[in-house]
Amino acid sequence: MKSQPVRPLHAVLVMALLLAGLWVVEVLDQLSGNALDAYGIRAREVDGLPEIFTAPLLHAGWDHLASNSVPFFAFGLLVLLGGVARWVVSTLVSVVSSGLLAWLLTPAGTIVLGASGVIFGWLTYLLVRGVWSRRPGQVALAVVILLVYGGLLWGVLPGAAGVSWQAHLGGAVGGVVAAWALHRRDVPVRPPAPQVYGWRT
Predict the structure, then answer these.
(1) How far, in Å, CA of 122 to CA of 119, rounded?
(2) For residue range 18-68, what is the model confidence (pLDDT) as tens digits?
(3) Is residue 135 classed exposed, middle or buried when 0-12, 13-18 and 19+ CB atoms within 10 A define those classes?
(4) Domains plus CATH for the chain?
């Protein structure tokens, strides 16, 4: 999928505004007595499915939001630099995949919220897109990200109480799917070698 690259300064401004928006939403949530948390994903409830699209905007307090802020900005920025279309597709796929698995696998009566599903989607997208594109720059970036943030991948496994490994796993799967869908045709096709004819005298 072709996608026009975004200028670094523009990408930084977009991600800074999106991150600021998450903090504004949390301010409003705190002022409302956490009333906005009702727009998180209500596991196993059909009425809770639409909240797949609002849950990533919400967080369970300042610590939760603070822990997500740096990877949200960094991974989102790196994906956005590859083009708006790819950023939109990878984000939507990660949101839906993360939300569906969280809704399906989380025990009933639980509300799931936070941007970590999208973060895991961006993370795996950045890690595996080079598998299909075979572009040296993307492969090198994936290696650096793996060295710096590879430990986050353990978050797809059941672990600490109150942490939605289901959303993490769903987001990670979504990132891989998005990378495959967006980059599987990026591999350049070599033209056939020209035939050489020799003249005999």
Answers:
(1) 5
(2) 999 999 999 999 999 999 999 999 999 998 899 999 999 999 999 999 999
(3) middle
(4) 8-183 (1.20.1540.10)
